């Protein structure tokens, strides 16, 4: 392409610079009357949406039982390896976490633990005000994590849907659950 | 009160007012920029953040005032002094209102131009004495910038001088009683405004300090009060440019009778200061070859045309 030169083009360029500068000035000036976007945090609380990923809790099912079955899926999904737990069983053979520990000084609030959990036990909540003076206090034990309610999944109870036999309910007795197929029978 | 006493009072009041005003301006600028950028700016210290400058002062005084071991010590110390001195000295010739003003030189305008031209020494000395490559690049840019704007800055004012027939700034103001020079000298005012922004090294002409490219340009090595002097110098120079435009093009203290002259002078100056802050908040910084070509290919011909046309009209 031929480079444009000449007096006419030069004058055009001058006015083009100046015109674009004036347009920009007006654009910025028109913001005089728009509202500031700032949320003055400690004085004003920001609005956090329900699915905001903050402090992690362990929820309970509607009957008040702990949901966590100590399957370790969250711990293996966690990219920062900050979940630590140990499985134990109660008298009925149900799995439980003996201890359940999250080191929040390493957690990056990615939410992968929540996605990995088969029982909706582990959930992230819209709360981020967890600052501590001592790093050790960032390690939350099971009693700090457990809450009394079902969190974001009201009415869900893993054993009602899972098709796993536990004491008191055999296979096929859960909600929406068909009787197990007898694989040894030829009947349709 | 004797005339000497009155003079001293005049000088002290103006000096205090200018320096204090420049310090306040650092806060005003941050608040105003905040408004234009849809945020708040410093609003915590004191009512509405007005005491922010006190906090900044304390911080700067507490800072270690470090002179680098590798620097040229004498020049290093003298540079911020020059930066502060030249702008404050240039303020001396600005007639603020009848009876307020340090001195009415009959070469007032030339004195102003001379003082502002000396300002570049502050930048170049600071840059050279720091013995730092960023500072040096900043200094070179300051020199390049200076040769581009200094020429059309002087030329843009000659139209006013022709119309007023004097270099005495008080006479310039008085000769605007029939009409401000902004109307016949619109192009001159526009060019001088651009030159004034370049003079005070503010965005979009802050090439010598360009934080994003050169850490802090010529004052990279400065800290504590020496840095503060560069900083205050810059803000005094903003006030000075605004005051100068007011005097030369907007009729200085002239205005309707219901308010005192001082009020009109301050009002016009403050509006111009706001405009300079707006410019800072909106325009991007050009490369320095672009700046030079803008200066030499746009502004210089424009001011020459303005000069020739004004001259012809005055002769007719
Ligand atoms: S949110 Fe992410 S980092 Fe935190 S515990 Fe869950 S998986 Fe680990
Ligand atoms: S919280 Fe969920 S994923 Fe983690 S161990 Fe318990 S049941 Fe498994």
Q: How does this structure look, described?
A:
- The complex is a heterodimer of chains A (188) and B (316).
- By secondary structure, chain A is an alpha+beta fold.
- Chain A has a domain at 56-161: 2-Layer Sandwich (Alpha-Beta Plaits).
- Chain A has helices at 7-29, 73-77, 112-116, 142-145, 158-161; strands spanning 56-58, 83-89, 95-103, 122-124, 139-140.
- In chain A, the strands form two sheets. In chain A, strands 2-3-5 form a three-stranded antiparallel sheet. Chain A has a two-stranded antiparallel ribbon with strand order 1-4.
- In chain A, a hairpin with a 5-residue loop joins strand 2 (83-89) and strand 3.
- In chain A, 14% of the residues are buried.
- The model of chain A has no long low-confidence stretch (mean pLDDT 85).
- Helix content of chain B is 69%, strand content 0%.
- In chain B, helix 1 (3-36) packs across helix 9 (224-249) and helix 7 packs antiparallel against helix 9.
- Chain B has helices at residues 3-36, 52-62, 73-91, 108-130, 133-164, 169-174, 186-199, 211-214, 224-249, 261-282, 288-315.
- The longest helix of chain B is centred in the N-terminal third of the chain and has 34 residues, at 3-36.
- Chain B has one domain (61-315).
- Chain B has 316 residues and is mainly α.
- Chain B contains eleven helices and no strands.
- Classes of the chains: A alpha+beta (188), B mainly alpha (316).
- The interface between A and B is medium-sized, with 19 and 16 residues.
- The structure holds iron/sulfur cluster (2 copies).
For the secondary structure, the number of strands of chain A is 5
The biggest sheet of chain B, with number of strands, parallel, antiparallel or mixed sense and barrel status, is:
none
Number of helices of chain A: 5
Tell me, briefly, the overall form of chain A: elongated
Bound molecules: iron/sulfur cluster
Helix-strand string of chain A: HEHEEHEEHH
Main beta sheet of chain A: strand number and arrangement? 3 strands, antiparallel
Strand order of the largest sheet of chain A: 2-3-5
Mean pLDDT score of chain A: 85
Output the radius of gyration of chain A. 29 Å
Taking pLDDT < 50 over at least 5 consecutive residues as the criterion, the unreliable ranges of chain B are none
Mean pLDDT of chain B: 82
Percent range of helical residues of chain A: 10-25%
Could you give the count of β-strands of chain B?
A: 0
User: Which class of the domain at 56-161 in chain A in CATH terms?
Assistant: Alpha Beta
Number of helical elements of chain B = 11
Beta content of chain B comes to under 5%
Please state the structural category of chain A.
alpha+beta
Computed CA radius of gyration of chain B, to the nearest angstrom:
20 Å
CATH topology of the domain at 56-161 in chain A: Alpha-Beta Plaits
């Amino acid at each position: 392409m031929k480079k444009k030169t000449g007096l006419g083009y030069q004058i055009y360029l001058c006015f083009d610079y100046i015109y674009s500068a004036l347009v920009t000035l007006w654009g910025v000036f028109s913001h005089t009357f728009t509202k500031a976007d700032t949320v003055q945090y400690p004085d004003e609380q920001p609005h956090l949406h329900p699915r905001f990923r903050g402090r992690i809790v362990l929820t309970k099912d509607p009957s008040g039982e702990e949901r966590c079955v100590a399957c370790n899926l969250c711990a293996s999904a966690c990219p920062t390896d900050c979940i630590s737990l140990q499985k134990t069983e109660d008298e009925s053979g149900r799995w439980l976490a003996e201890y359940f520990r999250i080191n929040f000084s390493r957690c990056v609030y990615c939410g992968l633990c929540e996605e990995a959990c088969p029982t909706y036990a582990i959930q992230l909540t819209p709360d981020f005000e967890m600052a501590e003076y001592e790093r050790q206090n960032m390690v939350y034990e099971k009693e700090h994590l457990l809450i009394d309610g079902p969190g974001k999944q009201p009415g869900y109870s893993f054993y009602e849907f899972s098709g796993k036999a536990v004491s008191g309910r055999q296979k096929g007795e859960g909600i929406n659950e068909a009787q197990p197929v007898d694989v040894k029978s030829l009947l349709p | 009160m004797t005339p000497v006493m009155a003079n001293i009072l005049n000088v002290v009041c103006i000096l205090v007012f200018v320096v204090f005003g420049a310090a306040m301006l650092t806060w005003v600028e941050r608040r105003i920029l905040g408004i234009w950028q849809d945020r708040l700016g410093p609003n915590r210290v004191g009512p509405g953040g007005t005491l922010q400058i006190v906090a900044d002062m304390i911080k700067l005084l507490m800072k270690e005032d470090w002179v680098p071991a590798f620097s040229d010590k004498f020049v290093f110390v003298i540079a911020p002094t020059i930066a502060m001195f030249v702008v404050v000295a240039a303020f001396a010739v600005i007639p603020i209102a009848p009876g307020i003003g340090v001195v009415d030189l009959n070469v007032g305008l030339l004195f102003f131009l001379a003082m502002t031209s000396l300002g570049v020494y502050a930048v170049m000395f600071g840059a050279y004495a720091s013995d730092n490559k960023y500072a040096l690049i900043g200094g070179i840019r300051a020199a390049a910038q200076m040769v581009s704007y200094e020429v059309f800055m002087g030329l843009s004012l000659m139209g006013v001088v022709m119309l007023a027939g004097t270099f005495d700034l008080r006479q310039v103001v008085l000769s605007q009683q029939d009409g401000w020079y902004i109307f016949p000298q619109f192009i001159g005012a526009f060019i001088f405004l651009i030159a004034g922004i370049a003079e005070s090294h503010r965005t979009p002409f802050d090439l010598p300090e360009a934080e994003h490219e050169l850490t802090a340009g010529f004052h990279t090595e400065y800290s504590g009060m020496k840095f503060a002097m560069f900083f205050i110098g810059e803000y005094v120079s903003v006030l000075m440019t605004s005051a100068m435009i007011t005097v030369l093009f907007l009729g200085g203290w002239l205005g309707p009778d219901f308010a005192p002259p001082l009020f009109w002078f301050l009002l016009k100056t403050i509006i111009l200061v706001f405009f300079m802050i707006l410019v800072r908040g909106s325009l991007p910084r050009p490369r320095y070859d672009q700046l030079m070509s803008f200066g030499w290919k746009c502004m210089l011909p424009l001011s020459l045309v303005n000069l020739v046309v004004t001259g012809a009209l005055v002769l007719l």
